Amino acid sequence: MWGLRPGVVAFRGTGVPDGWGELLAALEIDIEGMVPVGVPASVSEFFYSRNGERTQRVWSPQGSGIGVPYLPADTGEPIRRLRLTPEHIPRRYSDVRGAHLGPIHGDAQRAMADALAGLGILTLDPYPHVMAELTEENLRTLLAQLTAFLPSREEVRVRFPDLAPEAALDRLAPLARVATVVKLGGRGALVHDRATGRRHAVPAVPVHVKDPTGAGDAFCGGFLAGLVEGRGVLGAAACGSVSASFAIEDFSLDGLRRSKPKERDRRARWVLEHVK
Length: 276
Description:
With about 280 residues, this protein is an alpha/beta fold. The protein has ten helices and ten strands. The longest helix is centred in the last third of the chain and has 16 residues, at about 230-245. Keywords: Kinase, Transferase. It comes from Candidatus Segetimicrobium genomatis.
């Protein structure tokens, strides 16, 4: 939707619904990096409360149905035991202008960050267990390689349970090279621009929400697109907010498929006009 051709590196488990390839192709997403594996694709259920809190239910060994404060590294699903490595990245992706590391196991994420550190732009969104379990030294080492760090409020909360998102952002802000963002769901995002030393509140675009699942991932993709296009930190955050707004207007990827440049640009202007 931003005029760029993204590619995906991920495991492709069995049982994926028919038509998924056509859906990604309609969004001009390159899937050469999708690695087929002979285990079922991951399945999750999300439950949303009126105040915006989310509970995730995942597969676990029979009889272990327990509640935990955050998703552990191993839920029991076979596909979650696999590790992406830099060797899974297609060779022709070597000239990309930027990359985003989505939530994967901490050791795999660190290996990917090491391999991609030479890119001009590298962003990362962690799993909660990574935020909870990384030592301060390892967190600093990981974030020092990043252009931007993009955790959600849930991920920040497991590391700083007693801090408000603003205070937690202040703790994390010196670590990434260019920007740190705390995604706040329907409240938008808190953005720290390291060059200016300023913290900004970037609003969520007001739209009718059908399904908020994937809003954070869409924000990260839009943010990366904004950085790649040279829009600056706030411009990238506006791209993230706009991408999320289309994602939540429908189930699956249908909202993103229906996005049009004119409406995309109108929403981006609205976001920038309402930054605080």
